[in-house]
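Thread: quick sanity check before group meeting

JM: Hey all, I'm pulling together slides for Thursday and realized we never actually wrote out the predicted structure for the chain we discussed last week. Dropping the sequence here so it's in one place. If anyone has concerns about the input, flag it before I start.
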Amino acid sequence: MNAVKRGMGFVGVTHWLLCLLTILLTMHSAQANDATQGMNAYDTLGEQLADVINQQDDKRMVKIFNLKDFFRRAAKSVFTLERDVNAYVAGSMKNGEVHLSKVLFTSTYQRNPNAKFIRTIKDNQPVVRLDYSDGGHEYLLLVVEKQDGGKLQIVDFFPLSSGQMMSETLGIVSQMLYNPSESLLKRLFGSVEYNEALGEAFKRIAKFRAAGNYKAAYRVLQAQPENIRTRRIMLHSAINLAGQIGETEYREQLALLDKYYGNEESAGFLLIDHHIYNGNFRRAQKSLDGIVGLIGEDGVLMLLKANTCLIAEDFACSEQYARKAIAIEPDLEDPYWTLINCQVHTEKYAQVVETLKYLEENFDYEFTEEAFAGEALYQDFIQSPEYKRWLL
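JM (edit): ok, ran it. Output follows.
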């Protein structure tokens, strides 16, 4: 048992680019507010998506997610001619919607997420949170449109960790890696001298990434001119690759994201861990406050604020937010461990016992002397009369 680690779940690297490259391989051969009743329908759609992700049910996914419209939005992010848009959509859809759904969410499924609908925010955007088994979190802001007949369907989504619509990311990445024309690169990177070697470099990145050779893909990306590799979409790709390589590379790329885009609110979610790693707790809390302002409070955001305070050794602040997280989502386990951390550090041993008893009664724990004996955090606690009256 490690109560410290159990309460430290911060957002991880975005994984959406991992599945995008797989999608691209399959398509490379082709190129108003409603009333309350409407809001209830948006809530229902958010609940349905969460359940579909939890069940990994791609057949149900294609009933609520209009993939054809999604790929049309992706095409329109890079093409102006309708024939090019149509060719892109046709190439994308050739293997069928169920196959596309499976590919689009494959890296998400691999991380065993627990998806939860949070609420519908302004512009009728349902928000779904993904809690990954490895401790990371992601928020999806859904774009929903009425189809013919009045049916609501998801047509796009905005992962908070990416800072960009998923369709736009797909459209740009697909052309940048497989058809990197001079006009596209100039549009993305501004004044850039296009040559065949640059176009081939992007293709090599895609090839190495698809083969699982992350180090080679990372080396090619890092060899590109500064005005290309420091653009946001390239930094997200580099962060993604670096996360597969090692901590040093990962930290270096987060530092670059902070350097070039740290003042952009949409970068805040991915930079929380970076700010905490560097001891900049004020900026970490500011990033979290920005997210709360966008999507409202939930148990995880309050937990992240509590853990930021805990690492800063502000135990009163940490306890305040841990209790708030518990009040919002009492079935979320991690805030209880953060609360215990605070109670141990402030020697509130009677409260530690009460919280541990609650975990036993509600989360199927059975604590023994051995569970605490090897944990440095609990060494003073296990000498206390409160502990001895409880467990001995």
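AS: nice. The chain has three domains: 3-168, 180-261, 298-391. Residues 180-261 form one domain.
JM: adding both to the slides.
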